Every structure is written in structure tokens, then in C-alpha cells.
């Protein structure tokens, strides 16, 4: 069966093409002699920049060091070696903290699921050094947030109070809070949802029922079930525009595992995101030669999937970083439109309706006592109009 979805990838530089070819190298395989042309006219500094931006330097280093030394400058291999070793120490550091937090929460009767970090690297790659991570993402029930916060503060973590909220909109407009340990230099994200709302997703109880136990640590550490993990990785990567190839490499690794595609298709249908699953698989197929089997065609055959995959190339083409502010206005505008295009009709309706729900800026525009905050519902259209008018009047 053909896996060619004919995406427009003519924009690719020689450096990006080479990076993708190395990412596609199978275990134990080497660059064939007749492929040495891949290494011609390469700007090696640009190649390194791409590897760092896409967070795949640890994944490609074991492959690169097996390539003929005459094809790649020694300083490139040395740079990748240094970053590989640094990442390995980072992942070991995170692994130890992950086990400590799991023990702390379990002893205090908080059910805990680890979403990414070392547990994901071990599950997908069998080796924590092959994937990068800068923090730990932990999912807990929303009613345990206060207890979890108290425990982390007692352990020396500091909460990042960046969330502004009104009328408890944080529960669905946001999906995690951040803690940082100044001495350990470790960041934790405590999630109560997989993704920001509004939108339907599996409940914590469902995810907990389907959880798996990681073999990485001696103390039990839990991660999502395989099909739930695939759903999460797809939604997470799509929400970030697949702007880093690492997330597509994750998808490729998941496809290689024995997923129950009947259950996967049920999940994507239930949560109305089959077109997003198709986007991920098409991108992985076109860029990383992921093999599409018959059961996946339920996702890749959806009408929107190919267009969404084409739209996501915008982020890869321009090497866009959505994680560092300020994001350029044209990128922010494109990203907002792309996020809206990812939504199902039901999600779009909920998203549009959510604009009628008060925002924290309404309270800044017209401060009211907390017991009168319900008045922001009828006042919101007036406050929005006033802000827009004021914006046009002021220079």
C-alpha cells in the first residue's frame, strides 16, 4: 500500500534533509555508500542548530558516530557527544526525582500518572538517554491539587503563580501549574487535564484504570496506557504545531509498538479528533517513513487530515519556537488559526461560546467585589467594546 501523501516539502534545506535521513536510519543500519551525496554542501552549524531546535540531538548521536568520519566534521560529532552526555545526566537526575515524587504522592494517597520525561523515553526508546526532557509532567485528580501543592512546597519547590483566574475558569481554561526547585534546578508541571479546555477528554479515573507500571524505577511509577498515551502525544504535538521533530519521532516510535488500533480508533472517534490523529500519521509518514497499515487508514483517510498536515509544515519550514516569548505577531496569528482548524465542530462551538465567559481582564477593566463577579457575564460585551474603543483612541 502506498504511504505517499504528496505533501509539499520542496522548502527543505540540505541540512534538514540530512537530519531527516539520519532520523530514519534503522537500528544497526549505516549510511549506504551511494548516499554520500546527502553530505555535500552542508552548513554544519545550521545542521547542529536544527538538531538542537528539534530536540533530536540525543537520538541522532548514536547514529551519527557510526557514520564514516570523513563525511562529518569532527567538531560536529564532538558537539553532539557533549550534548548527549549532558542530556543523559539530566535524564538520570529527573528519573531520581520522578521516583521520589511518585513515592511522596503515593504515601499521601495521591494517584499519580507521569506523562513525559524519563518514563516516556524509557517506554518509547528503551533508553532514557535517547530522548530529551527539561521537566516532569505529572497528572493527578483535580481535587488533589491543594494537597499536592502543600507537599511540594514542603519539599522546597516554589510555585509559579502565572495563572490569573476569575469565577474558577482556571479549571478548564488551563491544564497545569508549574513548580520549580531552586536547589535541584528541576521543574515540575502538575496537570489536572491532558490539554487546555474547553474540550472533552478522558477522565482521570478512566486513565488510571488503564495505566501501566514503568520498568524504569524500583519504586512503582505509572504512565498512561498505550492507546491513551498515543492520544495524548498526538494532541500535544498538534497543539504545538509539530514545531519540533522530536514529537513526530515519538509518534514513529509508538507506531512501531503493538498498539491496539481498534481501541485507538475508538478513542479518537469518541473525542472527535480523528483528523488530528491523521495529521500526525501523515507527517510521520512523509518525514520519517512511518509505515501506515490498514487499520490506520481510518485516521489518515479523513478529509481534513492531509490539509492539516500541510498546514503544520509552516512551523518546520521556519524553525518556529512557540515556547519563547515574544512570539512574532504573524506566527501568533497563524498559530491561533491553526489551533482553531484542529478543533471538531463541537469544540469550535464550545470555544466560541467560551468567549462569553468572563476573563480576568474584565476584572481589571472594572474591579468589582468578589460577591458581584457574576455581573461580569452580562457586562462582558460592554467591557470588550470599551477596551477595543480605548485601544483605538490611545496612541
List key phrases describing it:
single chain; 395 residues; alpha+beta; 5-stranded mixed beta sheet; 18 helices; globular
Notes on the protein architecture:
- Pfam families: NTP_transf_5.
- It comes from Bacillus yunxiaonensis.
- This is Nucleotidyltransferase family protein.
- It is a single chain.
- The protein has 395 residues and is of the alpha+beta class.
- Among the domains are: 226-231 and 249-349, no CATH class; 365-395, no CATH class.
- The chain is built from 18 helices and seven strands.
- The protein has helices at residues 14-24, 44-53, 57-64, 74-107, 118-125, 145-154, 170-173, 204-209, 226-239, 245-256, 261-270, 274-288, 297-300, 303-317, 329-342, 345-354, 360-365, 376-393, and strands at 113-114, 135-139, 158-160, 176-181, 186-191, 212-213, 222-223.
- A five-stranded mixed β-sheet has the order 1-2-5-4-3. The protein has a two-stranded antiparallel sheet with strand order 6-7.
- Strand 6 and strand 7 form a beta hairpin.
- Helix 3 (57-64) packs across helix 4.
- The longest helix has 34 residues, at 74-107.
- The radius of gyration is 23 Å and the shape is globular.
- The model has no long low-confidence stretch (mean pLDDT 92).
Instruction: Extract low-pLDDT stretches.
Output: none
Instruction: Please tell me how large the radius of gyration is.
Output: 23 Å
The shape is: globular
Number of helices: 18
Return the structural class: alpha+beta
- What characterizes the major β-sheet? 5 strands, mixed
Report the strand count.
Answer: 7
Strand order in space, largest sheet = 1-2-5-4-3
Mean pLDDT, to the nearest integer, reads 92
| Straight-line N-to-C gap | 60 Å
SS strand fraction? 5-15%
Roughly how much helix do the residues carry, as a percent range? 40-55%
Q: Could you spell the SSE succession in H and E letters? A: HHHHEHEHEHEEHEEHHHHHHHHHH
Amino acid at each position: 500500500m502506498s504511504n505517499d501523501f504528496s505533501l509539499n516539502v520542496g522548502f527543505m534545506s540540505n541540512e534538514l534533509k540530512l537530519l531527516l535521513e539520519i532520523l530514519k536510519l534503522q537500528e544497526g543500519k549505516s549510511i549506504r555508500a551511494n548516499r554520500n551525496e546527502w553530505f555535500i554542501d552542508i552548513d554544519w552549524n545550521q545542521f547542529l542548530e536544527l538538531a538542537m531546535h528539534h530536540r533530536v540531538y540525543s537520538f541522532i548521536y548514536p547514529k551519527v558516530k557510526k557514520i564514516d568520519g570523513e563525511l562529518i566534521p569532527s567538531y560536529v560529532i564532538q558537539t553532539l557527544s557533549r550534548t548527549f552526555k549532558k542530556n543523559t545526566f539530566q535524564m538520570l537526575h529527573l528519573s531520581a526525582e520522578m521516583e521520589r515524587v511518585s513515592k511522596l504522592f503515593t504515601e499521601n494517597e495521591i494517584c499519580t500518572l507521569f506523562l513525559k520525561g524519563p518514563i516516556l523515553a524509557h517506554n518509547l526508546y528503551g533508553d532514557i538517554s535517547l530522548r530529551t526532557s527539561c521537566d516532569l509532567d505529572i497528572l493527578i485528580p483535580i481535587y488533589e491539587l491543594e494537597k499536592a501543592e502543600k507537599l511540594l512546597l514542603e519539599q522546597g519547590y516554589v510555585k509559579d503563580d502565572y495563572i490569573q483566574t476569575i469565577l474558577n475558569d482556571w479549571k478548564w481554561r488551563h491544564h497545569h501549574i508549574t513548580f520549580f526547585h531552586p536547589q535541584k534546578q528541576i521543574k515540575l508541571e502538575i496537570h489536572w487535564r491532558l490539554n487546555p479546555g474547553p474540550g472533552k477528554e478522558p477522565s482521570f479515573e478512566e486513565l488510571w484504570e488503564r495505566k501501566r507500571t514503568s520498568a524504569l524505577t524500583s519504586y512503582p511509577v505509572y504512565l498512561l496506557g498505550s492507546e491513551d498515551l498515543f492520544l495524548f502525544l498526538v494532541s500535544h504535538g498538534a497543539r504545538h504545531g509539530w514545531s519540533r521533530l522530536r514529537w513526530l519521532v515519538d509518534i514513529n516510535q509508538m507506531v512501531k509498538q503493538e498498539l491496539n488500533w481498534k481501541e485507538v480508533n475508538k478513542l479518537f472517534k469518541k473525542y472527535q479528533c480523528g483528523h488530528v490523529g491523521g495529521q500526525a500519521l501523515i507527517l510521520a509518514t512523509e518525514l520519517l517513513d512511518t509505515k501506515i497499515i490498514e487499520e490506520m487508514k481510518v485516521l489518515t483517510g479523513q478529509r481534513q487530515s492531509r490539509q492539516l498536515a500541510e498546514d503544520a509544515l509552516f512551523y518546520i519550514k521556519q524553525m518556529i519556537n512557540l515556547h519563547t516569548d515574544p512570539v512574532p505577531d504573524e506566527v501568533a496569528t497563524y498559530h491561533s488559526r491553526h489551533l482553531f482548524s484542529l478543533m471538531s465542530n463541537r469544540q469550535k462551538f464550545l470555544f466560541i461560546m467560551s468567549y462569553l465567559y468572563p476573563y480576568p481582564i474584565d476584572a481589571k477593566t472594572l474591579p468589582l467585589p468578589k460577591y458581584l463577579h457574576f455581573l461580569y457575564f452580562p457586562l462582558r460585551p460592554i467591557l470588550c467594546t470599551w477596551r477595543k474603543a480605548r485601544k483605538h483612541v490611545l496612541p
